[in-house]
Amino acid sequence: MNYASKSLDNSAEGKPAERILFFIKSKGPSPTARLAQMLEMTPEAARQQVQKLVAAGLIEGRQQDAAGVGRPRQDWVLTDAGNRRFPDTHAQMTVQLIGSIRQLFGEEGLDKLVAQRENEARLLYQQACHGATVPERLAQLAAIRTEEGYMARIEADAQGWLLIEDHCPICVAARTCQGFCRSELQLFAEIAGPGASVTREQHVLAGATRCVYRIAPLQKLA
């Protein structure tokens, strides 16, 4: 099943406001100066676009402690309205269905729903993530998660790899039934294989701006 849907345009031809929203979504809280530099805009143009987004209720300022002497830095973050500009897979209907299942069949029935979804995802992911090595399987996992709307990518570091998901298209449903998140963690561990461990380092439901998973090899990398 393909859950891909339209998201904001981050291409060079995309509207400046959309590019700013996409950058903050994918790179995290950012000051105006960084937005101007990374998106190749003049500082004044960046300030104008930022103020338009603030006025539209799509971003808001967040004060950061100053690294040294001087005024605290202000970073821009997406508001709930800003986050809603990105794909959210039939959120309201999903929440209503979860509530109906819980009312009719109780938590046991909801657990069966989560298990069924997990089994379907397991089959889909196993078919798509068949690389011979952990990095290959993780790259394939990130690709299929991106197709599903998670804006996923893999980053390598000295401890292993990070699976970073800049967007959660089922966030509203996951807040209603956190079993969806538990099943995903198990699926990622299965894709990584017995030679690696998977832990969640950042979680949207815990207040983070994205979900980040640490995949660490059980033996040191060469």
What gross morphology would you assign?
Answer: globular
Cα radius of gyration in angstroms: 19 Å
Put simply, the count of helices is 8
Poorly predicted runs are: 1-13
Structural class based on helices, strands and sheet pairing: alpha+beta
DSSP strand (E) fraction?
Answer: 15-25%
Ends apart, CA distance between termini: 37 Å
Major sheet strand order: 3-4-6-5
Can you give the helix content as a percent range? Answer: 40-55%
Order of helices and strands: HHHEEHHHEEHHEE
Structure description:
- By secondary structure, this protein is an alpha+beta fold.
- It has helices spanning 16-27, 32-38, 43-55, 80-83, 91-128, 134-147, 171-176, 179-192, and strands at residues 59-64, 73-78, 152-157, 160-165, 196-202, 211-217.
- It has a four-stranded antiparallel sheet with strand order 3-4-6-5, with helices on one face. The chain has a two-stranded antiparallel sheet with strand order 1-2.
- The longest helix has 38 residues, at 91-128.
- The chain starts with 15 loop residues before the first helix and ends in a 5-residue tail after the last strand.
Provide a short characterization of the protein structure:
This protein has helices at residues 16-27, 32-38, 43-55, 80-83, 91-128, 134-147, 171-176, 179-192; strands at 59-64, 73-78, 152-157, 160-165, 196-202, 211-217. With 222 residues, the chain is an alpha+beta fold. Strand 1 (59-64) and strand 2 form a beta hairpin.
